[in-house]
Design brief:
The protein has 7 helices and 30 strands. By secondary structure, the protein is an alpha+beta fold. The strands form 8 sheets. Strands 10-19-22-21-20-23 form a 6-stranded antiparallel β-barrel. The protein has a 4-stranded antiparallel beta sheet with strand order 7-27-26-25, covered by helices on one side. Strand 4 and strand 5 form a beta hairpin. The longest helix has 21 residues.
């Protein structure tokens, strides 16, 4: 190669780097195991531009080569052109552009300067031809298979899916207020004996807790025994029911009343038993103590069903509703979750934390969840019906405009503005602008979008250059200066 040819080759490399810099695209250096031969250099030296498989297969080489059966690759003369004039083909993967009509020539440095005829810039570099079909009126952009492969473009069809939108919130476990029982005396009493039950003990319904002596209860029990033992009043049901009701009003347990009816005697002490299954949260009863009316001696709670009170951010309240499923994970049990549903959304927002409380009811059969335990809740606020979705990576979001690149096939991509809905699990809902089954680009879409914008800009300059106000030398007659 002559010295002038080497200089032209170096200039071509600098021009390719300049295009990549101006358009904002990253310049990826190609392997240096082959020479970069431009069409101009090949024409000067009468050397073939590249070599193609003798059977016409899409296999190419920049140097003479033989097939597996010993046949020589067919030389292709200069002027046939490559898919990308500013990027030489790599061995065995080059793309040859079909003979098509050239619409105009663009500046090799990416400047807003076009020409309807071949020309050179101030550095002596040839303007790059733009063929018909490379830029269409519908705003689409066409890429060669080689460029699609190099940039890693992948597409995925728009499908109907159920988007799972999760709202995450911290909280604590609380007791179900409806499952807490308090044992308190309704008359002056004395604790005669306390069973072997302490705070934290699990008790069953009907299990003895303590023996109580109360003068008021003893008097009511004597009246009831006298009623049921008298041959006159025993047959009067109303009087008998009144005596029994008096014992019930004093909160005497049903088993104790049944024992009085069976023995027909007045017991010295009355045995108080647990009103429900649960755990003892509080024990204040001490043997020999005197209990005044209203004094709480035992507090028992059933924790087979508990509440998770979680704090939901104010911005998420619009998507929270009663009946939505929720998954609760306790920090004490990693890897385990508890299923529940929202039962109440409290009608108040904390003015300091800007959160609202939400109640999730949870089954706790094995009593693993304990009061005041920290939990993390995930509330599924998504629609149960499937909606049209695409991958989040497919959306080009500029803030005021959201678009996707539709793969039209044969290397053509069309930018399409869309309206988005909910997002979740790496997918986004498409409410308008796309049909089910249309393929959209999910990777390298920013590179295609940048090339589409560049070609649209160049097309606008080309149309302006072909207008009566401009000549073909690049001078604007109305402004008196180059664009």
């Amino acid at each position: 190669m002559t010295r002038s040819g080497l200089f032209t080759t170096a200039v071509a490399i600098i021009a390719a780097a300049g295009v990549a810099f101006v358009t904002g695209r990253a310049l990826r250096l190609q392997p240096a195991d082959y020479p970069v031969v431009s069409a101009a250099v090949a024409a000067d030296t009468d050397a073939p531009a590249y070599f193609q498989h003798p059977d016409g297969k899409p296999l190419y080489s920049l140097t003479p080569k033989k097939t597996d059966d010993g046949r020589d690759y067919r030389p292709v003369p200069a002027g046939a052109g490559f898919d990308e004039p500013d990027s030489p083909p790599t061995t065995d993967t080059a793309d040859v552009k079909d003979a098509r009509k050239i619409k105009y020539y663009r500046n090799p440095m990416g400047l807003p300067d076009t020409s309807p005829v071949p020309k050179k810039d101030s550095m002596g570099m040839d303007y790059i031809p733009v063929y018909e079909g490379d830029d269409s009126d519908d705003g689409s952009v066409k890429l060669s298979p080689g460029k699609i492969q190099r940039t890693g473009v992948t597409s995925e069809p728009a499908e109907r899916r159920r988007i799972k939108v999760l709202v995450r919130a911290p909280g604590t476990i609380q007791l179900d207020e409806r499952r807490v029982s308090v044992i308190a005396m309704r008359a002056e009493s004395y604790v005669h004996k306390v069973a072997d039950v302490t705070t934290g003990s699990r008790v069953a319904k009907g299990e003895p807790l303590m023996d109580i002596y109360s003068p008021v209860v003893a008097s009511a029990a004597a009246d009831y025994v006298s009623t049921i033992n008298s041959p006159i009043t025993s047959s009067i049901g109303a009087y008998g029911r009144g005596s029994r009701q008096k014992l019930l009003n004093l909160d005497v347990p049903e088993p104790a009343i049944a024992e009085i009816e069976k023995s027909r005697t007045v017991p010295t002490t009355i045995q108080w038993s647990a009103p429900r299954d649960g755990i003892v949260l509080q024990r204040n009863a001490i043997e020999g103590m005197r209990a005044q009316p209203g004094d709480v001696l035992f507090r028992i709670a059933d924790i087979s069903l508990v509440w998770a009170i979680v704090d939901v951010a104010e911005r998420d309240l619009g998507s929270i509703a009663v009946g939505q499923p929720a998954i609760v994970r306790a920090r004490s049990y990693p890897g385990r979750h508890f299923d529940g549903r929202i039962s109440v959304v409290y009608p108040q927002v904390n003015k300091e934390t800007r959160t609202a409380r939400v109640r999730v009811e949870l089954q706790n059969a094995d009593q693993a969840l304990l009061p005041d335990m920290y939990v993390d809740a995930e509330i599924d606020t998504g629609n149960q019906a499937p909606v049209l979705t695409v991958a989040e990576s497919a959306v080009l979001d500029t803030g005021n405009r959201q678009a996707v690149l539709v793969d039209k096939g044969q290397g053509r991509f069309e930018p399409r503005e869309v309206k988005l809905g909910r997002r979740g699990e790496s997918y986004v809902e498409i409410r308008d602008g796309l049909a089910e089954g249309e393929a959209v680009v999910t990777s390298a879409n920013f590179l295609i979008d940048a090339e589409s914008n560049l070609k649209a800009a160049l097309k606008g300059f080309a149309e302006a250059g072909n207008s009566p106000a401009s000549d073909h030398s690049g001078h604007d007659k109305t402004m008196g200066a180059k664009p």
